[in-house]
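Annotated sample (chain length 147).
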Amino acid sequence: MDLKERLRTDLTTAMRGNDTQRRDVLRMILAAIKQTEIDSRLTLDDAGVQDVLRRQVKLRQESIADFTRAGRPDDVARETAEAALIESYLPQMMSREEIEALARAAVAATGVTDAKGIGQVMARLMPQVKGRADGRLVNDVVRGLLQ
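Output written by the structure step:
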């Protein structure tokens, strides 16, 4: 079962179980997927669906930061719950230690010794961690290793 089909099945289950929050979030996700497919004129595979899900999580995280600054705890709680639900459909993210091990291997393979070569290391490392690690975290780990 592909990811889109799983989302549709979970939507049906949420509708039958009267789980309104889950139903609404799944509807938003499926609408975002459909809109992306219409805009790109392609049918998304699992990797494309995961990219849409990551964008949705990122939007929620930005909203959480804004609502926190505005002092709106109810909205923060709602957005946090939505982000957690969306993340449950994404693959498990890599830990900092796993990223660091891959980064050490990339640094050794490229022979880079200073921060000037960070682009070479990142170019080698990012395809290995695509979709499983946050780019900012990867960048921080690589910068820490090269300094």
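Annotation: The helical segments are 3-16, 20-40, 46-70, 73-87, 96-110, 118-129, 135-146.
Annotation: The chain has seven helices and no strands.
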